[in-house]
Prior knowledge:
Blueprint: H1 4-30, H2 47-50, H3 56-89, H4 95-103, H5 110-124, H6 130-154, H7 158-166, H8 171-182, H9 184-200, H10 205-208, H11 216-226, H12 231-253, H13 256-261, H14 263-271
Helix pairs in contact: 1-12, 3-6, 3-9, 3-11, 6-9, 7-8
Amino acid sequence: MSRNGPVALVYHALFVTFMLAPIGVVCWVAFTPEGFLSFPTDRWSLRWFAAIARYPEFVSAFWRSLWLGALSSAIAVAVSVPAALAIARHRFPGREAFTALFMSPLMIPHIVLGIAFLRFFTQIGLGGTFTGLVLSHIVIVLPFALRLTLASAVGLDRAIEHAAVSLGASEWTVLKRITLPLVVPGLASGWALAFINSFDEVTMTVFIAAPGTETLPVRMFLYIQDNIDPLVTSVSACVIAVTVVALIAMDRAYGLERLLVGRGNHGGTHGR
C-alpha cells in the first residue's frame, strides 16, 4: 500500500493535468497580444478581452444561452419529478417503455435531432424562434434531469412519508414538506447537469437557431469559420471564469459533494 500510494498520486496528477491542459491552453492564448492564435507567448495583454465589447452579439448570445439553459433545465426538472416518482414507486404496464421514451434522446445523434426539429418547427411556425429553442433543449436535457431525480427517488425512505400520513398530513403536505426536500440533491444536481448540457449544445442548435436567436456556442462556431484571431479564446476564458465562480459560490452555499452526490440526504438511509 505504501508503494502504491505515490504511484496512485502520480497517476491522479497526470490525469488532472491531462483534463485541465486544454482549458489552460485556451486561457493562456486569450492573453496573447498577437492578432492570431499564438502559443506559447512571452507577452501578455488584455487586448482580446477588451475586444469583446466591440462585438455585442457575443454578450447578447451569452445572456440568451444563460436564459435558455436555466429555463429548459427548470422545465425538465419539473417534468422529471412526477415521472421519477411514478417510475420509482409504481409498477404499471408500459413502465419500461415509459422510461425508455424519456431516455431516448440520449440514443439519437444530435445532428439527426437538429434536422428533425428544423423540419417540425418550420411546419408549425416555430422555426427560428426562442420558443422552438426551449422546446428542443427540454427534449435533450430531460434524460439528465430524470436520471438524477430518479436516483434520489429510488433511495427515498418512504417510512418518513408514512409517518407523516399517520399524523394526519395530506398528500400535498407530504409532497411539499417531506418528499421534495428529501430529493432536493437529485433535483439540484439534475438541474445543474441539464443546464451544462443546454448551455454547451451546438450540434443541434445550429440547425434551429436563426439570426437573433443564436446561442453563445453557435455564435462562436460561426465566428471561427471566418476568423482566426484569439477573440473566441477570450470569450471562452470569460465563460470558464464565470463557471469557476459559480462552482465556488455553490460550494460555499451548499457544498458540491452534498449537491452532486447527495450524501447529506441519504447517508442515514443507507446506514439503516
